[in-house]
Amino acid sequence: MLAKLRRAYARAGRLYKRQLLDQAVSLLGYHRKAAIPALRARPAAPRPPGLLLGRPRTCHPDTLLPILRPIGFAAMQPCGLRLRALLPQWLPAHEADHRRLDYDLRQTLLSASARTLDRLLRPLRVAGRRRAGTRPGSLLRHSIPIRGEWTETGPGWLEVDTVALCGGCLDDRHLWMLDAVDIRTDRAGLRALENRNQYCTLAHIRDLEASLPFALRGLDCDNGEEFLNHHLVAWLRQRPRPVLLTRARTWHKNDNAASGTHH
Fold it and tell me: Quick one: pLDDT at residue 127?
């Protein structure tokens, strides 16, 4: 009925169109304002059998994910833009460990856009984030006491901090420095860091302790993740003579380590 009214409406004059609108309202139950666009709509052209609209889907997840998943995890889950630049270097290593890819699949991987790679790997990143609802270190932070006044006597109580040697511009061309100051003797220890990851920071704190002429008894730091992590806490606590770890209050700049005033 609606198709017949549409064909008549397309050929009708103004007066006859009003009659067709009345029929659409009475027979089909349309509101008059809704009947106008319904009758004006043109029927969709029939699609030839076997015709697929849009571009062919060459980046199918079932085909590409078995290759992208191990490469993405091994490369520390970079964004699609960086992964696209890394694929020419990582694909030969993947082929050496698994099997050689056929030419079409290899070209599909190398020609995939950054947005396509992000879309394919997004479920893996979301699944990894949903494992815990708490930020890494937030529970650990609350288990570490806040430093008050220094009442301890004798050496071995250090304040540690990291300082950027950047000249005021935090780009990729700068180093970090680990600065440690003993509160009682004012002895300072400096170590250059390539970055502030947990392993690098802990390795240099261990090296700094080995150079001290006295036993390490306590560390006070800010709330940075280079200090407040399970690796450093376990290293300080799981020893014959545990070392006390304290921290500054969050968002209190005047609580930060006094080592920053020694530059």
Answer: 53
